[in-house]
Amino acid sequence: MTAGGGAPTPGGTAVAPVPVPAGRPARRRTGIPMTPAQRWGSAVRSLVLVLGALLFLLPFYLLVRNAFSTNADITSPQWTFFPRTVQWANVSELFGDPAVPMARSLVNSIVISSVQTAGAVLVGALAGYGLARIPYRYAGVVLGAIVATLLIPAAVTFVPTFVMVSTLGWVSTLRGLIVPGLFQALVVFLFRQYFSNFPRELEEAGRIDGLGYPGVFFRVVVPNSASFFAAISTITFIGSWNAFLWPLVIAQDSTSWTVQIALSTFLTAQTINLHELFMAAAVSILPLLALFVLLQRFIVQGVESTGING
């Protein structure tokens, strides 16, 4: 080795290292340039995606546009992209309508959907984890019975369920709207399938720390399954929020109406106020949008903090 720091060659002479200019970033090898056909293909795909997004957003645009318009603007043959005059009074008119208790209906829907979602997810998660992890001789039989209930048409159980709810005196009450939806066979089945593929190493680590089945479930499994819980909760909440037939039969008093029942009253009125109907529809989707925004961040945090890879 010479004083210059170069490596000696077999002949005894040193080879000086190649100097690298300071401050010059290392060059990154670029990929193969796209051919004209590939550029056209990429442009076509982008165009299709943009058109699909616009087509998807078109109903929401029409909903908001008509919600702040007058009946004359909505039915006018001369179409305008925006209302000629933004009718902010449509909001107060909607919530001030004595025939349709929209505010009460929104509160009822939020309470019913929230409680029903929390109960269905809790029951489904516990049942699914028990079927997937707790050794039980008849676990397969129980799972088969649960799956078999998915094949039964809802119309078959509709009348018996109504008779039971009516016998309990739950007609026109929130209990009659919430309790029948606390157990959902599909939620149990989905949780069972998910927990069957859950890494056993994480559960074994919890048992080494002295945790039993409840401790492992609530302190190990649930925190590492946040994204799945959020997805199931979103699906369950949307299904409960959009339910119409069961609330239509049970909610015989306006004090127990849900938002879907309130929306239907605008279509059955003698005089249909289109702007009020569109405003009610626009207001009814706000809780769903808020739920999506909240759970979107929750899903990201759940994925980042999870110990499951792949």
From TrEMBL:
Keywords: Cell membrane, Membrane, Transmembrane, Transmembrane helix, Transport. The keyword Cell membrane applies. Residues 1-32 are annotated as: Disordered. The keyword DNA-binding does not apply. Residues 10-24 have a biased composition (Low complexity). It is found in: Cell membrane. Belongs to the binding-protein-dependent transport system permease family. PANTHER family: ABC TRANSPORTER PERMEASE PROTEIN MG189-RELATED, ABC TRANSPORTER PERMEASE PROTEIN MG189-RELATED-RELATED. This is Sugar ABC transporter permease. The lineage of its organism: Bacteria, Bacillati, Actinomycetota, Actinomycetes, Nakamurellales.
